[in-house]
Structure formats: structure tokens, C-alpha cells
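Our example pasted here:


***
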Amino acid sequence: DDTLALFVAGHGTMVGQRYYLIPHDFRRQAATLEDDIRQQGLPADELADAIAQAPAKQRLLIIDTCASGGVLEVSRQGRNPLAFRGAIESVGQREGVFTIAASSAGAEAQEIKALKHGVLTYALLAALKSVPPGGPLENLTLQPTSADGMVDVLDWFSYSAGHVARFAATVHHPADQ
């Protein structure tokens, strides 16, 4: 009955049709940037294999990096993984893993310095009443819909995805925010 939750924030990118997490100690060494990424990065499919082997009943994967939608099959079909609750449900039912990504496969993850988090991370925390006072979602927390007062993963991810989409529309230059 365990739940495995893996949260990753940092850098990520697509090389061809494969998504890679970029380690903090990444250094240019090879002839091309793509070769460096392939040699030093962590391919998402290898991470997914490790998660799938965990003897947990439920698995959550939260990726707040650029191009993180590359982890989701739906993003390779040209859709925005944040916009589709059904896509989250489909991945979860098929693989036992609930995944949310900060951006589509070809996009940057948004970060607003004033929030002190990436936009996805901030929205996930706000949903659970875990942000400092004064932020834009301070009073817009997720209300549990279950009789036991617990927040469902799909509701949590859908709430957060909706707010990420709203913020993304207002952010033009992440470094300037």
C-alpha cells in the first residue's frame, strides 16, 4: 500500500525522441552538446523503468523542468500534457504512475523569481496550502472532494495544471520575472 513520490526540479531537454534529466554537475566535454547530454543525462525511460520496479501501489512523478512533457507519451503527439486530465488518468491507469510535467516536450518550464519556485511547483504547493502569504494562489487552495477529506492525486494535478496554464499565459520572459 506504499506510495512512491518522485519530484524532480532542474534542467531537462529532448535529444531526438528521448527526454533527459540534466545533472547539476553537467559539463561540456564531448564534440557536441547532444553527445554530452546522452553521456551525462538520465534518460526518462530509464527512470521510468526504475519507478516501475518499485513495489509501491501508487507512484507519483512530478517533473518541473524544461521539455518535461517529453516524459509523457501524449506530448509526442503534439498535445500539451498539462491541459488533459484524461491523459493523466490514462497514463496512471496503464502504468500505475501518475505524472505531471511543467511544460510540453518542446517548451521551457516557467519560473517566476517572486514565487521562489517553478510555476508548477508553486501551483502544487498552493493546492495544499503550503505557500507563503502574499502569492497569487494564497487563497485558492484545493478543496477535498472525498468524504474522508483527502485530496485525490488527479484533482491535485488537475488543479495545478490549470493554474500553470494560466500563469504561463502571463509570463513572457521567465528570467525577467
Notes: The two ends are 41 Å apart (CA to CA).
